[in-house]
Amino acid sequence: MLPRVILLLAVLALVACALRQLYLALWSFPALRPDQMEGAEPQTPRDDAELESGAFLHRILTEGFSHEREPWALEQARRVADRLQAGRPDDERFRVEVLWTSEVTAFTGPGRWIYLSRRLMERCIHEDAVAMVVAHEIAHHDMGHLDASSPLGWMVSHRMHGPEYELQADAHGLNLCLAAGYDAWRCLHLFDVLEAHALDAGARAAVFGPEDAMDAELAGEAVWRVDLRRWLHERRTGYPPLRERKAALARAYEAAAATP
């Protein structure tokens, strides 16, 4: 058994190395944006420190997509960031960058930046839902999910523990929102927004889980086989289904609220 585990880890390490090289190769091309002139110098990291600190990613994203000029979006991002981080020292705070992109997304990486797409902000009825997005990304840093000693280490760790990391970030993120005075149920509306977007894109598995697992359950297959299908799907995608994530948070909040 042990040799197989070692072999699996070796394969994962090789795949991670290949992905890192692909990442660097992709970033060596000029950013594809309207104001990028043909023949411009390719964007590359100035040094390893810029790459590993997240400064290179921040430079690329802000130069290519940080063109937000609408006061409401910039003010909302600033207000949410300030409210969630009211008790943090200035040098430990994260800055929220609003990206002008068609993707409905939010993410973070090395460094003290949170990236939030304007399209996601537009879909959130309540500011509380936007706060939940930002708090979730801050939580990844608070929980040490990005603390691997190298990009390779982070990629292997994320592949092995990604779904657990997401659930932990959900729970800690909601706690950050509650501490800042946001409404829990309005925060959880974020998952309705993400679900609607996923279904519009035909990504049913992102909402309900893998269809083969649901089919296996309906067919009466052994529980362990159904659970294995779900586990493999979550390792492959890095995320538990949205419905399950929202339900887990709702149960935890109701239990906490009912405690005297």
TrEMBL record:
Highest taxon above the source species: Bacteria
Domain Peptidase M48 residues, every copy: 69-146
Free-text remark on how the cofactor is bound: Binds 1 zinc ion per subunit.
GO molecular-function terms, A-Z: metal ion binding; metalloendopeptidase activity
Keywords for the protein's UniProt record, in alphabetical order: Hydrolase, Metal-binding, Metalloprotease, Protease, Zinc
Pfam families: Peptidase_M48
Biological process, per Gene Ontology: proteolysis
Names of required cofactors: Zn(2+)
Family: Belongs to the peptidase M48 family.
Official protein name in the record: Peptidase M48 domain-containing protein
Organism: uncultured Gemmatimonadota bacterium
